[in-house]
Amino acid sequence: MSNAAPIYIQIADRLRHHIQAQVYQVGDQLPPESQLSQQFSVNRHTLRQAIALLRQEGLLRAERGRGTFVAAPIRYAIGQRVRYNEALKAQGHIAQFTLLRAIQVPAEISVATGLAISPGNPVALIERLGMADGEPISVGSGYFPLAFFPDLLTDESLATLEKTGSISKWLAERYGVDHIRRRTAVSARLVQPEDAKLLQLSLNQPILLAESINVDQTGRLIEYGVARMRGDRMELVFDNTA
């Protein structure tokens, strides 16, 4: 290997290429460390650095006592009722969230358009880092009209969000509101510096960007959302029955 990059990165690049070319397919177990070390002419420490890098990227997963396997992407169904926690749990993952920001901000044009309010009107911004099994996979920003939820940013309200761990359950328990997806627009873009740090990505990696509009059971606009998701870990499925 004559590339100027560190040896473990070169090995990670080659293994990544094998996965993308489906030499190793989802669910396949990688050969033993001894075999891979011999194949790449490196010691086990260097090989483990390469595997750790691919595990961090979500391409590989380790099972204690069994070995290392090619990881499946997390499937996230987009329908009328989008339930992040339930989707991860159904696939055997543990969903966790870290609250990044809970503040009042003036509605920017995109937010105002999504909520059918005037630009500059006060909205609550709830921003959270979503994780699967401790690995960061998404950053979600939800904008809620304070005209409908004037106490949304109080300590009591945020404590309910912390307890439920779910936007849908929070709105239902706190306000008796059903959280229904009206529209989702998905695009791809390069990750921005702040999100790259949170999602543990390099700046040249693409992410999935999902803009959403949510209504309550009466059709009232209650949330404009922007979710940035790791494109290497998430697979969006549009399900008209969900």
Element string (H = helix, E = strand) = HHHEEEHEHEEHHEHEEE
CATH architecture of the largest domain: 3-Layer(aba) Sandwich
Mean pLDDT score:
90
Backbone structural class:
alpha+beta
Main beta-sheet strand count, sense and barrel state: 6 strands, antiparallel
Query: Oligomeric state of the chains?
Result: single chain
Write down how many β-strands occur, each being a DSSP E stretch of 2 or more residues: 10
CATH class of the largest domain: Alpha Beta
Intertermini distance: 49 Å
Tally of helical segments = 8
Q: Within the largest sheet, what's the order of strands?
A: 4-5-6-9-8-7
Tally of individual domains: 2
Strand content: 25-35%
Poorly predicted runs are: none
Q: CATH superfamily assignment of the largest domain?
A: Chorismate lyase-like
Radius of gyration: 21 Å
Pfam family, one: GntR
GO biological process, one term: negative regulation of DNA-templated transcription
Protein name: Phosphonate metabolism transcriptional regulator PhnF
GO molecular function, one term: DNA binding
Describe this protein's structure.
With 242 residues, this protein is α+β, with helices and mostly antiparallel strands. The chain folds into two domains: 7-70, Arc Repressor Mutant, subunit A; 74-238, Chorismate lyase (3-Layer(aba) Sandwich). Helix content is 31%, strand content 34%. It is built from eight helices and ten strands. The protein has helices at residues 7-20, 33-40, 44-56, 84-90, 109-115, 155-164, 167-175, 193-199; strands at residues 60-63, 67-70, 74-78, 95-106, 122-132, 135-145, 180-190, 206-215, 221-230, 234-238. The strands form three sheets. The chain has a six-stranded antiparallel beta sheet with strand order 4-5-6-9-8-7. The chain has a two-stranded antiparallel sheet with strand order 1-2. Helix 1 (7-20) crosses helix 3 (44-56). It is elongated and about 65 Å long. The model has no long low-confidence stretch (mean pLDDT 90). Keywords: DNA-binding, Transcription, Transcription regulation. Residues 5-73 form the HTH gntR-type domain. GO terms for molecular function: DNA binding; DNA-binding transcription factor activity.
